[in-house]
Amino acid sequence: MTEDPLERIEREEQEKKQNRPLKTLLVVLAVVAVALALTLGWIWKQKSTLVNELEGEKAELAQQMLALQSDFENLNSDYESINHQLDTSREQVALLIERLRQTEATNRQQIRQYERELGTLRTIMRGYITQIDSLNTLNRQLTADAAAARRDAEESRRVSQELSQQVESLTGQVAAGKVLRARGISLTGYSGSDRVNDRHSRVRYMVASLSLVENSLAEHGPVRVYVRVKDPSGILLQNNNSTSFSAGDEVLQATASREVDYEGQEVELSIYINDTGDFVKGIYTLEAYTEAGLLGRAECMLR
After folding, report:
1. Which pLDDT belongs to residue 116?
2. At residue 102, what are phi and psi to the nearest 5 degrees?
3. Averaged over 183-210, what is the pLDDT?
4. 163: which DSSP letter?
5. What does DSSP assign to residue 164?
6. Cα torsion at 108, 66, 64, 195 (round to 10°)?
7. Helix (H) or strand (E) holding 261
8. How far is it, in rounded angstroms, from Cα 259 to Cα 246?
9. Which pLDDT does position 123 carry in this prediction?
10. Contact, 296 vs 182, CB < 8 A?
11. Angle 5-74/108-162 helices, nearest 10 degrees?
12. Which of 96, 36, 17, 10 is nearest to 61 (CA)?
């Protein structure tokens, strides 16, 4: 049976109307797919760029750490306490470099933490340089003073030879010149990381430092130096190694002591004060002795 032309036209129009939403949906889906592809491509490119930038920042930070490590290796001093601190700081730099190596560049929070730690170590480095320069300046001054003292001693001997009537007086001067003396007496607080610190809550031990000055007239041989450290309340700090000693006609209790070999040349020494309990806020006083008597005093203020 032949289809009526009008019915056929109506049927085709009806089919077109039914297929139009499907075509529209297909077009929309195609546009969305293209947009998503472009967006994902842009995101991937941005991420790749960011990762490259972070890798560059990590590499630059590593170079800065290696430069600081080289600076620490090239920094040396003639002072035992500073050398001990330098060894500790060198270990900290090496550990920081290793931690950076094991950290992904995309871990920005950890990388920023390493940058702050690097800044702290740089500050410590500058502190060491300043401290060493100051001690070297003091050492040169002490050397000049010792040379002047030797010249004075030579002049005194010349005068004593020329003026026999002053023999008795000069004998007394020579006896006084044999007395062992000290310079640069100081008391310093240190934290558990072996850094100089004046915060009482962070101080874990203290170091008493001094120099037995050059004296060609003084008796040569072993000399034991005793230190008495008192807290802000006037209580003597003590531990299991504390001992007593005789200073002249007086018997005293010492916080700590150390024996050095004195041969008439200047001797620098440090005595560690530890295992004495927690430190409190206030002024700590230091008295340094030999068995011949008092060498001098110093104070340390803890905040």
Report:
1. 86
2. -90, 0
3. 92
4. -
5. G
6. 90
7. strand 256-262
8. 15
9. 87
10. yes
11. 10
12. 96
pLDDT band at 205 (very low <50, low <70, confident <90, very high): very high
CA–CA dist 39, 109 (Å, integer):
27
Q: Which has the higher per-residue pLDDT, 96 or 12?
A: 96
The answer to whether the CB of 256 falls within 8 A of the CB of 209 is no
Positive or negative torsion for Cα 256, 299, 212, 220: negative
Instruction: Read off the tokens for 84.
Output: 């001990």
Contact 64, 92 (CB under 8 A): no
Strands 256-262 and 182-191, by their bridges, are: unpaired
pLDDT of 179 reads 78
Enumerate residues 6+ apart whose C-beta is below 8 A from 59: none
Strand order in the sheet with 293-302: 256-262, 221-230, 282-290, 293-302
Q: What b/e string do you get for 221-244 counting C-beta neighbours within 10 Å, with b at 16 or more?
A: eebebbbbbebeeeebbbeeebee
Length of the chain: 303
Rounded to whole angstroms, the Cα distance separating 253 from 276 reads 14
The token duo for 102 is 């094991």
pLDDT digits over 37-62, tens only? 666 665 555 555 555 676 777 788 78
> What is the structure's pLDDT at 113?
86
